[in-house]
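Input record (one chain):
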Amino acid sequence: MQNPPPNQQGNERAKTALGLDANLGAAIGYPIGIIALIVFIIEKENRFARFHALQSLMCHVAWVVIFIVVAVLFTLLAFLIALIGSTSSAGGAVGGLLGILITLVWLAVIAAYIGGLLFAAFKAYSGSWFKFPIIGNMAEKIVNK
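The corresponding structure, as predicted from the sequence alone:
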């Protein structure tokens, strides 16, 4: 079996600059974004911890953008529903159904966000170099510099 290159793999069990095991520091950075920020700023040696910290930060930023876009779209849709509801007798029923649909979509978006963070935290804790589809490659390029 070939040995992993230094500082690339095998450092999942090393300590971070915070004194945490690298896999633990990487895992708790996903649900608690401030820990990821601290690990990314302080950690200079352990690429595993830096990668997961940066991927966590990028994931949080991406989801904030998604939340803003969805909120703007739903606000515009709500104004449209209110306009339709004020001009027709069936507008209240349509508005109620669309309100329920909007709530369900919001719940699905939030569940996807929390589920993705928990999945990534579990993979990081198990020592896996798990990468999200787009931001994982970006984080890997930044950490490898």
